[in-house]
Specification:
With 177 residues, the chain is of the alpha+beta class. It folds into 2 domains: 72 residues, Outer Surface Protein A, domain 3, CATH 3.90.930; 82 residues, Ribosomal protein L6 (Outer Surface Protein A, domain 3). It has 2 helices and 13 strands. The radius of gyration is 21 Å and the shape is elongated. 25% of the residues are buried. It comes from Dongia soli.
């Protein structure tokens, strides 16, 4: 039994959810997102809540029950409040800035790294060493943050590189004489 799937998703004020033709459409103030619904589950909207039920007791139906509910919750939260990932840059001379539709990163290479900002994603650099990535699609926000972090991952000896603000770097001891 899915513990996640049993709980209905509450629909906040200003968000509409429609299910038609095997596709759930969620509209809110930040945008519109669609989720294809598996044929193993049924999605119903009633009394300001979205509930997901498995059609059979097969393994596939039970797997998709919790997954579909979690994905619907992510869509509802995304179009109502949005998602944010914060990155920190550590290292002497390492910095970031937004130049038009590109994120310019100076990471100790012989050249600047230009990252084109995708549609639906907003990137802000309040300080030269902090990057804030915001959007309504949770998967895309996380993917953009991972791609930016991939340019210079934090190393364990000095901690230089790009890391998530919630991430802790396990530091290693340097070599001894």
């Amino acid at each position: 039994m899915s513990r996640v799937g049993k709980n209905p998703v509450a629909i906040p004020q200003g968000v509409t959810v429609e299910v038609a033709g095997g596709v759930a459409t969620v509209k809110g103030k930040l945008g519109t997102m669609k989720l294809p619904v598996s044929s193993h589950v049924s999605v119903t909207v009633e009394d300001g809540k979205v509930s997901v039920k498995p059609l059979t007791q097969s393994k596939d139906a039970r797997m998709m029950w919790g997954t579909t509910r979690a994905n619907l919750r992510n869509l509802v939260t995304g179009v109502s409040t949005g998602y944010t990932k914060n990155l920190e840059i550590n290292g002497v001379g390492y910095r970031a800035s937004v130049q038009g539709k590109n994120l310019q990163l100076q990471l100790g290479f012989s050249h600047d790294v230009l990252y084109p900002i995708p549609e639906g994603i907003t990137i802000k650099c309040d300080k030269p060493t902090s990057i804030s990535i915001t959007g309504f699609d949770r998967q895309r926000v996380g993917q953009v943050a991972a791609e930016i972090r991939g340019y210079k991952r934090p190393e364990p000896y000095k901690g230089k590189g790009i890391k998530y603000d919630t991430e802790t770097i396990l530091r290693k001891e340097g070599k001894k004489k």
